[in-house]
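Before going further, learn to read the protein records used in this course. The integers have meaning only within a learned vocabulary of local backbone shapes. To see the layout at work, look at the sequence and tokens printed below.
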Amino acid sequence: MSEATKNKIRVLLQTLERRFGKVERQEFMPPPASADMDAALAVATRNSEIVAAAVLGLHGPPQDGVESARKLMGCYVDWNEIRVANRESLARTMGKDPRAMERATSLQRFLEAFFLRQRNMNLECLVQMKPSERKQFLSDIEVFSREELAAILLTCFGHPTFPPSEVLNRVALRCGLLRPKTTALQMCKIFEKGLTPQELLNLYSHLYSVALKHCHEEAPECGGCPLKPRCPSAKQFSKPRK
């Protein structure tokens, strides 16, 4: 990646941060210093919530998953209860979220696969794994697509990987971050070679915010998009339809 492209991405990220806010990955709690059972339970509960939030936040800004996880844990005892809960009830618990049912489905599929593999709901075990072991485990349970697996590794565990999302590729192409006809897989390699893990996370989150709020596949709403002043595609999509 050229320095010009890096600078272009960094300017874009600054613009999007002013609109959508700062992106921060949730930090896992370290093991308690003492053998206190209550302290250990608190750590496991918190770390498990972070893992579940990453699953709930797939295909969108990670913060959306964080908010959904908090709502669920405010109404249910633990992740095992959520695993077997009525899916419509889970969706209602997440409130007026148009993607609530989709989030509930993804989470329950993951929890069920995890339970069948481990025979428990100790999601914190993923935190203790080495990066290569974690990636293999999440791949072996056969729940996540290639894009989803990369997203969880990036947003939850800080792996320096960028998801091969067609949605993000569309936005990156339209706003001039990539050369025409660059594929989603090529996009990943380009971004991974030139950006830090935090920059990858920022780009992932903010591009999804743009995609969901403005840069739709058909009839993008360029008028209120924060990238409009520097987006080469904005003039094309802003032309009045005949």
User: Anything to note?
Assistant: The domain at 3-23+161-237 is CATH 1.10.1670.10 (Endonuclease Iii, domain 2). The chain has 13 helices and no strands.
